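Components:
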Amino acid sequence: MSGALVFAASGVVLFGLGLFGFIVHRHLLRRLLAFNIMGSGSFLVLVGLAQDGRGVDPVPHAMVITGIVVAVASTALALVVFRRWYRASGRTDLPEDT
Amino acid sequence: MIGLWSIPLLFALPLALGILTLLVAPAWRVRLSLLGLIPLIVASVAVAAGLVLDGPQVYALGDWDAPLGINLMVDGLAVGMILLTTLVASLCALYAAVYLRDLPASSSFFWPLLWFLWAGMNGIWLAEDIFNLYVGLEVMGLAAVGMVALRATPPALAAAMRYLLAALLGSLAYLLGVALLYANYGTLSMAGLHEVATPQVTTHVALALVILGLLLKTALFPLHAWLPPAHGGALTPVSALLSALVIKASFYILLRFWITLGPEVTPLFTAQLLGALGAGAVFYGGWMAWRQEHLKQLVAYSTVAQIGYLFLFFPLVTGTSPEAARLAWDGTLMMLIAHALAKAALFLSAGNLILAIGSPQISHMVGVSRFRPLSLFSFGLAGVSLMGLPPSGGFTAKWLLLHSAILSGQWWWLVVLLIGGLLSAAYIFKVFRVSFREGPQTDYLATPPRVLDVTAMVLALGAILIGLTAYQPLHWLRLGSPFGAG
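Structure:
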């Protein structure tokens, strides 16, 4: 197993862990953290797999930087909505009615 | 040449307006936005004229070549979506300018969010590579979540949070699919993938991830749970924008993937599965719409149902004759356009009826036909297109899909079209039955401003007219697609 594949495999494991956390947890902050772990996993796959056998490739790096910006922005928005929701309802999870 | 110069303006303008409207005082945001509509409409028309005169082309942004630069693809489908976006979003903006007058807190953030949403959508329609589609999806998705939260009531915040979680999960699945495709083929460009993609395990896993992510974002049954609270609970112009345009963006990406990878790579089983899920959406959404008590929830569930028709594209185009595939392409795009116009009209006129009676309950609409005939007429015209009665865009779309299903020998999709039409008739007439009943008169019946009725009416008329004049638009939509321009 090459070094690049190790990165990619860890990425997949992280993505799976994050997905698991995203599904089982109800607390919105935990789900948000799980989302960030999933994000890191997919960035690892993106950087790791693309290095395999082709030398250093700048394109995945550019993509991951964009991806990190997107993840930060999404997390910030989610935190704002979560805070407003917590203040309005006093709950840390979503009502499971619908 | 004018068309070529206008291409980058299509998202440079909305982005600039998004930032500018944030910088100016809230009172100026409406005026600046309405002013900004004019150059954007001109640019959209110029790009469309460029397509008709010069044919489809690829535009390298800032003359940088891919993969470092960004390529923009201007073909019939992209231009069609741009014109549709410009039409629907401009009318929704006019509506919002009046509708939000009494809601200063929501209004001040509506305008920047609208422009960011617009920039994201135009970015998606024009993107030529699968990573920029992801960026466009995120820009659009985050703006859409902000718009759902504008009302700032607890239910609206819960709906926004649920929408955000679904959208984030969807985009990560999509991104992982993109990572696998890039690792395997070393290209992000659609044209590049079209050349090199082969049916192998990596491609299929990547395709499955991409499909799953996009289905979640398109809210295809059974992944639709986030849609009714988000679309039904938002402010009326926001509901119209989300239902008419935003969910179409993720479907558009799926459509692009499908025709890029081509029939050799896309598995037949998946196509049939997508069609079956679409059928499930038509039945379940129609049934749930009929059962709703709130007018806007009914319209939101109607969206869940109508999304289902779009997914009949996949079984009708995979492994069928070229003629059947072309009919499926035409029918699906006609369905998409007709639904965008009709659903925007339906949401706006539903908003007008709610303003008039002061209650979202359908049962409170007793006698409204006598006082608000125009609002109800727009609602009815849009309903005609959703039911698929002639002459309307919805009818033309179903007619084309029906032909395609017969030509490809897949008669079972006819059942979906038929029962889906009956279910839509059931929930549209549910509203009419109440509104034509004479009952105890309510003592308060507000008169919404004229602009609100006019914008809803224009959209509803558009949904009817597109059915009468379908031939030429469908011809243009085929430009640059694998279905020929014949």
